[in-house]
Automatic annotation (TrEMBL):
It is an enzyme of class 5 (isomerase). It comes from the Eukaryota. Its EC number is 5.4.2.11. This is phosphoglycerate mutase (2,3-diphosphoglycerate-dependent). Keywords: Glycolysis, Isomerase. Belongs to the phosphoglycerate mutase family. BPG-dependent PGAM subfamily. Pfam families: His_Phos_1. InterPro entries: His_Pase_superF_clade-1, His_PPase_superfam, Phosphogly_mut1.
């Protein structure tokens, strides 16, 4: 996400704009699935798919002693240890992302600024769920194509403006680029968790 942000700013000749980095936009924490310390096949492919794609069922927690736990990473040294998840489901990721939306992104938008968010599939999914008003049963199936800009135009109250270019289940967001390539990219993301 950091490299994507840098590339986009370079391409737009916008290196001078302020950049905020936050752990709140990190990809979700896959708990005991992190680091492939135990092959997913041992747990059963259907169970792994449930953990990866359900809204509110997280994988088993990752022990803090595990070398892959985020508490061992220098970039989180200043973070309160209680804020570092041992595992997350999409519901947990949404709860982590939304304070950043409310405290940083929304005020910037209300001030008339254009905000570019470079993040990960599940943290982007959290923001999209809120903007689009997608239900808990629809949002896990939303595939966010990697590296494809998703644009929202919002009114002064941060309500999304409809567009005929939205791809279901979206009603307000539009992807930039070739529609067929975007569909193929979304399908590739979907196939990463396909069983059988």
């Amino acid at each position: 996400a950091i490299k994507t942000c840098n590339l986009a700013l370079e391409a737009a000749d916008q290196y001078y704009v302020p950049v905020n980095k936050t752990w709140r936009l990190n990809e979700r924490m896959y708990g005991g699935l992190t680091g492939a310390h135990r092959p997913p096949e041992e747990r059963g492919p259907l169970q792994v798919q449930i953990w990866r794609r359900s809204f509110d069922i997280p994988p088993p927690a990752l022990e803090k002693e595990n070398k892959y736990h985020p508490c061992h990473e220098a970039k989180y040294a200043d973070l309160d240890p209680k804020d570092l998840p041992d595992t997350e489901c999409l519901k947990d990721t949404i709860a982590r992302v939304m304070p950043y939306w409310e405290e940083t992104i929304a005020p910037a938008l209300k001030a008339g600024k254009t905000v570019f968010v470079a993040a990960h599939g599940n943290s982007i999914r959290a923001i999209v769920k809120m903007i689009e008003g997608l239900s808990d049963d629809v949002i896990p199936g939303l595939e966010i194509p990697t590296g494809t800009p998703l644009v929202y135009e919002l009114d002064k109250d941060l309500k999304p403006l409809p567009t005929s270019l939205a791809v279901e289940p979206l009603k307000f967001g539009r992807y930039l680029g070739d529609a067929e390539k975007i569909r193929a990219a979304a399908e590739a993301v979907k196939n990463q968790t396909k069983v059988g």
